């Protein structure tokens, strides 16, 4: 097989106007960004359907790759092939992983969204708009302090940091502004990656432009000496931030390799944010299609939990079916095989041993009242015996597994999965429920997620963190859901503890209030909200060839 970018380069795309027409988007609602991508004005769209929502999630990610986005694309194309009107809803990729270690986020093989290179690099500028809006608020906070600080913001309690859409560990903790009186008052601060910005979360959870501005105004930027909060609206930044985001709030329309429509909108990471595409894109798709395929970031312990407990709770949504992606390679690694040894032949025992990870995720999804369908994303080195083990183990764990070859064959390789999932979506999920009630104490919500989903034996919440949570409850934020920031590689906070660890300790390092987004972030273990580049970043292998075409992007 050629590489992902070679496949993408050889694709025959159709004009975005034709994609829009096929999806039921009228001409006056389409705002083209070149030939193959566009924004969509959702206010001008007709309501033609009341679609079924299908969530795609996965086992814990490994360096071997699982292909959750690839499976989402393949399933969407397959649903079209069996005659179902379908819309795909995905997140936009961040530049950080593209130049770091993960690579692009547009799918792979013959199940990609297009134009792949543009989607992975800048796209329609949404992330730049979010970065600009976030840092505008940062500038206005420091400017307010410089010009007399009439709001009496305590410099020691400014909680609003800056953001950048790049992995840069050098910016995690900084001191600024320096350079004397003319530059302002020195204080400790730092940067997060854009996908961890509360602005990103707000954009993905807002229902419309008015709701967006209200949520922006509700952001807490810091506290006074008496610990009363100072809001974004107090420094009068919310309206100008909304102006910067007026186009970014509109969903982006692109196409799959099979020329099927897809919305790509928003992109919060699931290990440090809530990991779901925008509510606007999802609800718009549900109005226009009979089936909507969406995904939640990383493994089901993070993305699916946050999809159920945050996105569905705040947006009034519920999934009608869940697909859980697994691979022979991922289960081998969870069974103790090193990445370098994955190509050394059949290892049925390792697949069987690593299936404890699959079992844990099946059990967890069932806690929300839904039994997932297992999509086995086939790799060319997988043996039939290894694939059979996953089918066998899934059945033992109470779920149906389907071998899918969409990476090599496109939608045709996922038709069996599509038929099964469509039938389950038609039946719905009458027993859907969330993990905890909204009126549960914030500390208890953290403990519930850690014990029920991560299978922790203990949860360490320092007295200072408990005091902070209590303060937020007294301020009226106790009903907020909790967004856990934790390593994606393990159920524990130790990224090397693969399989299905239990009875471990989940230590909460700090908590952050996202008052505009509507949730509390609990940071566990050593997870960083500003990632760093690996020793050999992907950026070293990305270049333009003599014809001006991008190479090395995957």
UniProtKB/TrEMBL annotation:
PROSITE patterns: FTHFS_1, FTHFS_2
Keyword ATP-binding in record: yes
GO biological process terms, semicolon-separated: tetrahydrofolate interconversion
InterPro entries found in the cross-reference section: Formate_THF_ligase, Formate_THF_ligase_CS, P-loop_NTPase
Protein known as: Formate--tetrahydrofolate ligase
Pathway: One-carbon metabolism; tetrahydrofolate interconversion
Keyword match Ligase: yes
Keywords: ATP-binding, Ligase, Nucleotide-binding, One-carbon metabolism
Catalytic activity: (6S)-5,6,7,8-tetrahydrofolate + formate + ATP = (6R)-10-formyltetrahydrofolate + ADP + phosphate
Binding residues annotated for ATP, in chain numbering: 62-69
GO molecular function: ATP binding; formate-tetrahydrofolate ligase activity
């Amino acid at each position: 097989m050629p590489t992902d970018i070679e496949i993408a380069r050889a694709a025959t795309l159709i004009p975005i106007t034709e994609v829009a027409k096929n999806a039921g988007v009228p001409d006056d609602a389409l705002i083209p960004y070149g030939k193959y991508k566009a924004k969509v004005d959702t206010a001008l769209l007709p309501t033609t359907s009341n679609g079924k929502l299908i969530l795609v999630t996965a086992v814990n990610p490994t360096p071997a790759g699982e292909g959750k986005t690839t499976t989402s694309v393949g399933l969407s194309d397959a649903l079209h092939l069996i005659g179902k009107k379908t819309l795909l809803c995905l997140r936009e990729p961040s530049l950080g992983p593209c130049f770091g270690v993960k690579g692009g986020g547009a799918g792979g093989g013959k199940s990609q969204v297009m134009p792949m290179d543009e989607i992975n690099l800048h796209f329609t500028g949404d992330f730049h708009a979010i970065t600009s809006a976030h840092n505008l608020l940062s500038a206005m906070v420091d400017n307010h302090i410089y010009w007399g600080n009439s709001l009496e913001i305590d410099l020691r309690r400014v909680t609003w940091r800056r953001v950048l859409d790049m992995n840069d560990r050098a910016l995690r903790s900084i001191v600024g502004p320096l350079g004397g009186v003319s530059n302002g008052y020195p204080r400790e601060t730092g940067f997060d990656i854009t996908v961890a910005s509360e602005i990103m979360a707000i954009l993905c959870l807002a229902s419309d432009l008015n709701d967006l501005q209200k949520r922006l105004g509700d952001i807490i930027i810091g506290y006074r000496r008496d610990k009363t909060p100072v809001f974004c609206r107090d420094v009068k930044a919310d309206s100008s931030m909304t102006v910067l985001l007026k186009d970014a709030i509109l969903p982006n329309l692109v196409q799959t390799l099979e020329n099927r429509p897809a919305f790509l909108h928003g992109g919060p990471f699931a290990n440090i944010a809530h990991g779901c595409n925008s509510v606007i894109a999802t609800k718009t798709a549900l109005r226009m299609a009979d089936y909507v395929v969406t995904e939640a970031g990383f493994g089901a312990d993070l993305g699916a939990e946050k999809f159920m407990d945050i996105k569905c709770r705040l947006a009034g949504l519920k999934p009608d079916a869940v697909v859980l992606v697994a691979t022979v390679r991922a289960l081998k690694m969870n069974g103790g095989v090193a990445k370098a040894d994955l190509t050394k032949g059949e290892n049925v025992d390792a697949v069987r041993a690593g299936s404890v990870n699959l079992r844990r995720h099946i059990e967890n999804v069932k806690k929300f009242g839904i039994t997932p369908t297992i999509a086995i994303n086939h790799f060319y080195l997988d043996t039939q015996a290894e694939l059979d083990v996953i089918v066998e183990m899934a059945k033992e764990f109470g779920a149906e597994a389907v071998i899918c070859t969409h990476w090599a064959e496109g939608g045709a390789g996922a038709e069996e999965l599509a038929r099964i999932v469509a039938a389950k979506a038609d039946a719905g999920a009458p027993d859907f429920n969330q993990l905890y009630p909204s009126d549960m104490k914030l500390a208890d919500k953290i403990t519930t997620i850690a014990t029920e989903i991560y299978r922790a034996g203990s949860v360490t919440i320092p007295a200072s963190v408990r005091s902070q949570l209590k303060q937020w409850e007294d301020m009226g934020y106790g009903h907020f859901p909790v967004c856990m920031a934790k390593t994606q590689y393990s159920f524990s906070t130790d990224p090397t503890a693969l399989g299905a660890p239990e009875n471990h300790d989940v230590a909460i390092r700090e908590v952050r209030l996202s008052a505009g987004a509507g949730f509390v972030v609990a940071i566990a273990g050593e997870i960083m909200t500003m990632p760093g580049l690996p020793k050999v970043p992907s950026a070293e292998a990305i270049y333009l060839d003599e014809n001006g075409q991008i190479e090395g992007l995957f």
